[in-house]
Amino acid sequence: MKTTSILTLAATALTATGAAAEKAEVDFWHAMGGQLGEMVDKFAADYNAGSETCQVNAVYKGNYTENMTAAIAAFRAGEQPHVVQVFEVGTATMMAAGDKGAIYPVYQLMEDAGINFDQSAYLPAVISYYTDTEDRLLSLPFNSSTPVLWYNKTALDEAGVEVPTTWDEVEEAARKLKENGVAKPFSFGWQSWTQIENYSAWHNIELGSQQNGFAGLDTEFTFNNDAVVGHIQRIADMGKEGLFAYGGRRGDSRAQFVNGETALWINSSAYYGGFKNDIKDFEFSQTMLPLDTEVADAPQNGIIGGATLWVLQGHEQPEYACVADFFQFLSQPDTQAFWHQETGYVPITTAAYELSKEQGFYETDPGTDTAIQQLSLNAPTPASKGVRFGNFVQIRDIINEELEAVWSGQKDAREAMDAAVERGNALLRKFQAANS
């Protein structure tokens, strides 16, 4: 991948006007707080130090939902950033914005910048989520992850429990952990993503019609099927027995795992960096998601979470040349290998994965390739490629509300999933009407 004409022209133009010291500025709005935000700031600073023509201003705008909402509002006001980080469930909304001319697709950006952009360099399981019907990349994968089963190995050993591989084993392990003094044996975060979306893909069950929304806007949810309902009811029953403790919608229950209250925790692989820094009193690791043997004989594949970088229209071409160059920088093997090894996010390119192997990362830090193995376990099917539903950010809130009614005992799983499907389908019809 080589940058050619546009960056050269931009540099020449600046020199010709006597403003060589002035860099074209790019505003990059992201949702990475804490340690992750510091790393994003470092990427921007490193890039800026090495560029004579470009300046990337990385700005934290809150969590994923807040960042996306801020960018949409800014676009309507004509004050949009060049680049915005959007989580995976916002993909359909961003694609719809692209149909209205608001998005600068990455494949087009790179072509216009004169960059030989090789899409095959990126992991197929990552980019398939963000391509159009002609398999052209619309946004740049940046922080991609998948949920894994985190476990407190010390607690499992003390309770005489093997690492569970099935949901029956999770339930039995939680019971033994409880008997051995673990207060809240099992929990999870991002419950729609981990317990419905990934549960469905892992067992090769469609979440909705029209290939989970990939094949058309006239999709309808089907996750009130017997398999998902049975799974949610199992967890609710575990809660009644004191084996499961709900800890919040995002990563709120992280503290339960870090302080030893919870020994089995399902959430993003991207918690690795933080766990490595914060967990000192016990040995921890990660393994693949458990299999529901009543539903499938073998797992299919996991689906990604995290976010990509979308480019918004409305700026000058020299600035977009800088965006393309910055994207090249972020995709370099050493950049991606560093990001992967420090955080637990999946390396977005094959080269970064191979570099991590060469550096011995998976030997010194065993288990850290679990996410990659899950995503590439089998070739994705229409049921396991991912989800692309309009208004899904709001629909996830509906799912959260209905699941919380189950955990609190106000509804059983069937009532809640039927209600979530009905309410979710109403928002799908609104999205279809607005974008047809």
TrEMBL record:
Q: Does the keyword Signal apply?
A: yes
**Which subcellular locations apply to this protein?**
Periplasm
- Supply the alphabetized keyword list: Signal, Transport
Signal peptide (UniProt feature, chain positions): 1-20
Described by its record, this protein's role is as follows: Part of the ABC transporter complex UgpBAEC involved in sn-glycerol-3-phosphate (G3P) import. Binds G3P.
Q: Which family does it belong to?
A: Belongs to the bacterial solute-binding protein 1 family.
The name this protein goes by in its record: sn-glycerol-3-phosphate-binding periplasmic protein UgpB
